[in-house]
Specification:
globular, 2 domains, three-stranded mixed beta sheet, alpha+beta, 133 residues, two-stranded antiparallel sheet
Length: 133
């Protein structure tokens, strides 16, 4: 993985990578070396509002999609994670200082497994509601 790919971390809002509305950033420090990796967009309440509005719009089409379509998209995301496991493990290690082997064998596979679990659950979604205490 080329470290330059994580030199500028932006928000992901409404399907796009975008900077903070006010342009403010935070320095991203690699824990293992103390060196700067680059910058992270510093989110403020206006950025949160923008993200919530985008998520609300997306939630409507997601809610209207079939369980099969939801499951398909979650599976596709899980596969994308697995396809990039090495890059993601290295990025995770650089970002938080843990050994690449731990990220490769636990963290990244667990993310894909969680998505696969919810993909299966989405396919078996029922409209029933159960009373709880």
């Amino acid at each position: 993985m080329d470290r330059s790919t994580i030199s500028e971390v932006l928000h992901y809002i409404d399907g796009e990578r975008v900077p903070s509305l006010d342009g403010e950033t935070l320095e991203n420090i690699e824990p293992a070396t103390g060196k700067s990796l680059g910058s992270i967009a510093a989110g403020k309440s206006t950025d949160v509002d923008r993200a919530v509005e985008a998520a609300s719009r997306a939630a409507q089409s997601w809610a209207e999609s079939s369980p099969e379509v939801r499951g398909y998209h979650l599976e596709k995301l899980a596969q994308g994670i697995e396809d990039r496991i090495e890059d993601l493990a290295i990025a995770e290690s650089i970002d938080n200082g843990k050994p690449v082997s731990v990220a490769r064998s636990l963290d990244i596979p667990r993310a894909a497994a969680n998505l696969r679990f919810f993909a299966g659950a989405a396919r078996y979604q029922h409209e029933d509601a159960f009373r709880t205490r």
